[in-house]
Amino acid sequence: MHTLTIKNLHVSIDGKAILKGIDLTLNQGETIALFGPNGHGKSTLLMTIMGHPRYHVDEGEILLDGKDILKLNPSERSRLGLFLAMQLPVEVPGVPTADFLRSAINARREKPISLSEFYKILNSMTKEVNFPFDMVNRSLNEGFSGGEKKKNEIMQMRILNPLFALVDEIDSGLDVDAINYVAKALKEEQNAGKGILIISHYARLYEIVKPTRVIIIVDGRIVFEGDSSYVEKIDVEGYEWLEEEYHISLKKGEEARPKVISLGSCAIKKNRAKEK
User: Fold this and answer.
1) Is 52 helix (H, G, I), strand (E, B) or coil?
2) What tens digit of pLDDT does each residue of 110-154 get?
3) What is the C-alpha to C-alpha distance for residues 213 and 193, in angstroms, rounded to an integer?
4) C-alpha angle with apex 81: 43 to 73, nearest 5 degrees?
5) Higher pLDDT among residues 255 and 33, named by residue
6) pLDDT classification of 176: cutoffs 50, 70, 90
């Protein structure tokens, strides 16, 4: 079984501490829904795992099947089986989408993929995410709508077939139909046994892509872990219940350092509530 392990991860941007000791293990076949107030480190975690140069690792480890990947560049991490579906995909003028995808596939193969096989895969995947086939001949993301960019990210994920998919608010700005296409494609990844670490604020997506665990990050630390039932609780109540039920501060800063609540303690609290 493949495993992505994060140990005591401390990350800063331009000298400002963002992540302050993240410990997390994602196993093959698991889906972790990552929640937390905006600006508290969720996207930073995904970007750091993928190796974005802006994010400086001050301390800690990121291990893929026990191998330290911190010294590897994003391309090398990708070839090992990591994929990041970005919240804001960049435009790359002059690079046709089809050429980009074929190059990405060939970077993972000893023998280049034939044109006939490539276009067979491309035709299937564009239909799966309802992405107009003629757009694969346009420059990568250039002039694409927000929804088209997000579908293109998911299509890349499906074609590249990673071990672990890191998904950063891929559904933001999408209409209901587009969310359904994206969610169903993610469900296929789930059914294939991939490990998925996903950031989303839409309960609709989680109705299709049911998470194994829910994790909440506050002020750069994991402060809460629970089962999938907490998706609905967060959707209805936000995060105020963390302060009311578990006395976890939602403020940033060392003076507001929160304590960690685990899945086990959540179960205990539920059982006590039933007894009353």
Assistant:
1) coil
2) 999 999 999 999 999 999 999 999 999 999 999 999 889 999 999
3) 15
4) 65
5) 33
6) confident
Stretch 169-192: mean pLDDT, rounded?
89
Which tokens is 226 given? 């629970």
Q: What angle do CA 97, 175, 26 make, to 5 degrees?
A: 70
Cα-Cα-Cα-Cα torsion 127, 131, 132, 138, nearest 10 degrees, comes to -130
Q: What is the largest CA-CA distance in the chain?
A: 66
Distance CA 36, CA 198 (A): 12
* Separation of CA 242 from chain center: 23
For residue 118, give the nearest of 107, 106, 108, 128 by alpha carbon. Answer: 106
| Edge-to-edge strands, sheet with 3-13 | 16-27, 3-13, 56-64, 67-68
Query: Which candidate, 83, 81, 99, 104, places its Cα nearest to that of 3?
Result: 81
| Contact predicate 43/11, CB 8 Å | no
Q: For residues 249 and 84, give the distance between their C-alpha atoms in angstroms, rounded to a whole number.
A: 30
C-alpha angle 232-234-238 in degrees, rounded to nearest 5: 140
Give the H or E element holding residue 56: strand 56-64
Match 């960049």 to its residue by tokens. 90
Residues recorded for the chain? 276
Residue 109: phi and psi, rounded to 5, are -125, 150
In one letter, which amino acid is 184? Answer: K
Q: CA-based Rg of the chain, rounded to a whole angstrom?
A: 19
The separation between CA 200 and the C-alpha centre of its own chain, rounded to angstroms, equals: 9
CA 101 remoteness from chain centre: 20
